[in-house]
Design brief:
It contains 13 helices and 11 strands. The chain is an alpha/beta fold and about 325 residues long.
Length: about 325
């Protein structure tokens, strides 16, 4: 049966489709966001942006922070550990026209944790709240959101730090939280705790809560949406190699048979993605960047292993097009 497609809001930003593209380090650049928007993604975020790097050349945007007029609404996600520097980065994103400022308090990568950034802050709730307040004060009227995990340590079953951060953030004026159902300690191992996501939405019925974790396909995204009651779901790894996931979710919601691209249709999209990337970065850097995307696209192919090897060997545009011609006929 068709499902009701409800809209939700992040501050004054109305999102007409409750499945959004998450910030993906190394992947969610402007070319990929453009492609996902063409598939129906209504809201996207940049890759994770280190606050200090943004401030090095404030008048020359980094590649990973570049946007264009069609790339809206968009969130700029920043990571850091000092309220003053995070606030300065947020002010810069405001001036550049980003619609939302997103704070990363969830990244489980060891480098971030060693430098007391990202997921490290899940264990420092007062610092998280201090950063949130400073960023809200510096962001003008831009909505501020937080990316959180359910805990820092896996054995933290009371989630006291999480509740303190979430409540403090909403009290300070945060527009939404996006919650990943794993702890920082477990990174991406084991199942995400969707029951915890349901408990978060139950505790904050009047606030925007977005769910994250284990959304490998459109069916999983629909299940999270229905089982937890969250306002929206954030597609991360499930969109890599399958930008059609946004269209597929809409098909499920509206009671249609889920769209599955043919090999020829996959080839057309990958050709377009390559064009966008090489126009954005130049052929050398764009080709190098697209190899990792090719490996992800290969997961949908019946000869995935051979295709991955072929994409790894790609060195230029002619190589990329030759791989597509050889495998997508």
């Amino acid at each position: 049966m068709p499902k009701e497609l409800k809209t939700f809001r992040i501050g004054d930003v109305e999102i007409d489709f409750p499945v959004i593209l998450a910030p993906l380090a190394g992947y969610s650049d402007l070319p990929f966001r453009t492609l996902c928007r063409s598939m129906g993604a209504p809201f996207c975020a940049t890759e994770m942006l280190l606050d200090r790097c943004l401030m090095v050349k404030p008048n020359k945007p980094l590649y990973i922070s570049r946007s264009d007029d069609d790339d809206h609404p968009i969130a700029g996600q920043i990571i850091g550990s000092e309220p003053e520097t995070m606030a300065a980065a947020a002010e810069l994103l405001d001036r550049r026209g980003f619609d939302v400022v997103d704070l990363n308090f969830a990244c489980p990568v060891r480098k971030a944790l060693r430098r007391k950034r990202g997921g490290y802050i899940m264990g420092e709730p007062e610092l998280a709240i201090e950063i949130t307040r400073a960023v809200i004060a510096a962001s003008g009227k831009r909505p501020v959101t937080l990316k959180l995990r359910r805990a820092f340590k896996e054995n933290d079953r009371e989630h006291e730090a999480f509740w303190r951060i979430a409540e403090g953030a909403f009290d300070a004026g945060a527009a939404a939280i996006c919650v990943h159902g794993r702890s920082v300690e477990t990174r991406y191992t084991g199942p995400a705790d969707w029951e915890f996501l349901a408990s978060v939405k139950k505790r904050f019925p009047n606030n925007t809560v977005i769910g994250s974790g284990d959304l490998k396909n459109a069916h999983a995204a629909m299940d999270m949406f229905e089982q937890t009651g969250v306002d929206g779901v954030s597609i991360a790894r499930g969109g890599l190699g399958n930008p059609w996931i946004f269209r597929q979710w809409c098909d499920l919601a509206e009671g249609r048979e889920m769209y599955m691209p043919t090999l020829l249709e996959q080839k057309e999209v990958m050709t377009e993605h390559f064009r966008l990337a090489t126009e954005f970065y130049g052929e050398v850097r764009g080709t190098r960047n697209m190899r990792k995307f090719g490996i992800k696209y290969a997961t949908m192919h019946p000869k995935a292993k051979k295709l991955r090897v072929a994409f790894v060997a790609v060195k230029n545009a002619a190589d990329w097009l030759a791989v597509l011609d050889n495998f997508y006929t």
